[in-house]
Each structure stands twice: as structure tokens, then as C-alpha cells.
Amino acid sequence: MSHAAHRFGTVEELRSDYNLLVKPYKALDDVDGKTKEEAIDKTEAMADIAFENGAVNLGRRSGCIGRGDDFRDIMKWRSLQGFFAAFSDKEKLKKVLKEYKKRDYGISVVAGGLIEEIFAMCREIGIKPHTILYSFGVWGRTELLPSEDHLKITTLCGHHMVSPAMIDHYVDLIRKEKISVEAASRKLAGPCVCGIFNTDRTAAVLTRMAGR
Amino acid sequence: MLIDREKCIGCEECFPYCPVGAIRLAEGGSVSEIDQAECVECGCCYKRSSVCPVDAIYMPKLEWPRCLREYFSNPDVKHPSTTGNGRGTEEMKTNDVTGRFGRGEAGVALELGRPGVGTAFRDLETVAMAIARLGVEFESQNPVAELMADPKTGKFNDAVLNERVLSAIIELKVPVGKLRDVLAVVKEVATKIDTAFSLDLISRVDADGTTPVVAIAQAAGFSPRPNTKTNVGLGRPLFKEA
Ligand code: SF4
Ligand code: SF4
Question: In Å, how far is A118's CA from the nearest CA of chain B?
């Protein structure tokens, strides 16, 4: 439901973690073929813009650039699935949104990140936030959660395909100098099918966890 | 998911891939096994990673209700009930196009098992039955809906109660005026379940950038996190604003 909403981190850390979902309305699948094809063409054009403006990850079920898949191959899949992207720099996301507004694709766009930053960005560009999904934290048996550092990485994948044990595994390999922090981040991005996993942020957390 | 004992060499390579820690060495320590009660059939140890050097990990045909584990936990697998992937709906993602959440309405979602803890449908039933007493309607497009024997009471089909998944969502929409009552129940029921959950509230954004739900939630003892996701309103509406 909310790949983008529950990313753990301090406000300072979250200043370098933004994300984007471009999502054509699913029922477009049931309308005429021409409308569907147009929506897919627009989605592809929107993905080009996100890619060209420096998304650190971008993907969909066909793969993601964060783990090293080729962007063109990922986008060959003609589907109304839309795509996800992650950015480490809010200015890059702002540029993308500005371009989307200018080109007026008419496809839904969801932007994730610090609320105040996203709303400020919208004001600057001249777009009006339509609907928000607030995250009101974790309740119930919170003692079952892994450490805050683990959560900063595991919550980058909304489906929780990245296990805390896998993080420990790579922290150990980094300490033993058997893998670089960057390569470990790409490995951790591997199980996340969507492309919303921010490899830059992961590298920063791994660096700290490995005591580097 | 199962491990072929004839093939497994007990190398433990697959262990870190499991998000719920269900893989362990079997008695004797020379081969590995998967705890079938804990495994949520997410596929992380299998095709998603292709980690096993001897292809000992395999997926048997999953019969109902065990197949629910895979539908809810493996994002590569479609839910037969919704034909969508994942556990949720389009909720606010396309709200600028669909108008699903109008002004004066609040979306409420309890994402049980999230982040990364896992849950059994028994816990979803506990939550659903507590909230149903307020006379609310659950989101019919959410794949959890078809598991309810009686959506009016929130009672689930008994056969699914012990099935475990990475997460599943109780999703509903209420008039903003009813939100306080719902949140009081959420707080109460949080102490009665065997898992953790992430809480989401969805609202249309007013012209001044505020929403009515934050003050209500804060008064009920819930604080919003500083980051989240926003539909920025670039979709072309297919509905007329009431
Ligand atoms: S399918 Fe998922 S839950 Fe089951 S053993 Fe493999 S990784 Fe663990
Ligand atoms: S990776 Fe394969 S061989 Fe190694 S423990 Fe797991 S199932 Fe056995």
C-alpha cells in the first residue's frame, strides 16, 4: 500500500531520500486500446524524464537500475504498471515534477519524502497537492522490530524483501573488506522489485553500521 | 517453500535471504529445512535470489489456504481476487483521477505485520472485528475483504486464520467525524494482537495545504511522521467534484 510512506530515518537523513511513483489508473486497462497505449507511451516518456534527471534507482516488476539492470530493458515491458524511482537530491525530483507539469501528461504522480519539502516543492512549481497518506508510526508489538539502523534499510523496500539478516551479512563482509559499501548496497537492492530502494541512503547506513 | 534434503549441502547461504528467519539447520546439522509454520512463501530464498548453489530450494504447488501466503507476501504474484500485485489497492495513488476519497472523508489503513514482522490472519480478524463494531465498511477491493466470512462483523473464514503473511491491510473509509472513534479502537486493539502494524491516514489536502485529519489524530494520541507520500494532483480527473 505505501512503499513510499514509512521510510525510517532522522529528519536530517530523510533530507536525502525522495521517491516518485507514476501510476496510470488501473481501470484504463478496460477502456479502448488506443487510450491504454497512449497511457503507456506517456508513462515511458515520464520514466525517461526521471532517468535523465538522475534517479538513483528506477524500476518496476521488470527490473531496476539500482541493482544494475539496463534502463531500456526495464522499460521494454509495455504495461500500465507505472514505475517507481528514488532520488537523493530534492532538486532533481523538483526538476522532474516541473517537467511533468509542463508536459501535462494527466497521469497520477505520487511524490514521497519529508512533507514540508514536498509541499514547498509543489508551491514553487505551482501545483496543488491533492491527497496525502500520512504515516502515523508503528503500533502493537513494536518490540518485535529490528534495530532502528536495520529499519532505515528494510523500510526502503515496502514489500520487505530485504531482510535484517541480509543487512548483517553485508555489514560483516564490508568489515572484512570482502565487498565495497556501494556493491553491498546494489546487492541489497536486488530483492526489491519496484526500484524504490535508495542505494545512496543504504550506503550511508551501511558505512555507519560497519564502523567505517 | 521446501528444501530437498537429498540435494542440500547445508551451506547456509540461503539463511540471510529469509525476511522472517524461517530457514535453519535440521537436526544433525548437515542439511537445512524451512519452518513451514513461519514461512510466508515470499520467494526471497528461491527465484528472487537464486542463491542455492545446488538448486535444493523448490516451490511445491500451494493449495488453498496456504497459497494465500504467497499472494500476500510475494509481490511478483498476482492476487486472483483483485488481479493486482501486492496487498493493497490503488488507494490515494490515483485519487486525483478516481475521486475515491472525497472532502470530508478519511481513509484508514492498518498495515499488519509491517514493517517486516509478519502476521497471521487471526490478528487481522481481531482488528477487523473491533473496528466493525463501529458500523464501518471495509474496502471491498482490498484482497483481505474476500477472506471475511461476514464483512459486517469483521469475522474471517476460520480456515485462513493461521495462515501467515509478510503483511496484509485492514482498509476502510469513514466520514472525518467518525475518525476519532476509529482511532480510539485502533489504540485499544493494538494491545491485543501478536504483531506490529503501521498506521496510515489518507485525506484530501485543503487549499491552504492543511488537512482535517492531523488534529483529530493528534488529539487521539497519534503523531504523524515527518515523511510520507503525496498525490501531487497531476492526474486528469475522471470524476466531478461534489
Ligand atoms: S519463501 Fe520466504 S519466508 Fe519462506 S523460507 Fe523462503 S525466504 Fe523464508
Ligand atoms: S543454499 Fe541450498 S544447499 Fe545451501 S543450505 Fe540453503 S538449501 Fe541447502
Answer: 8
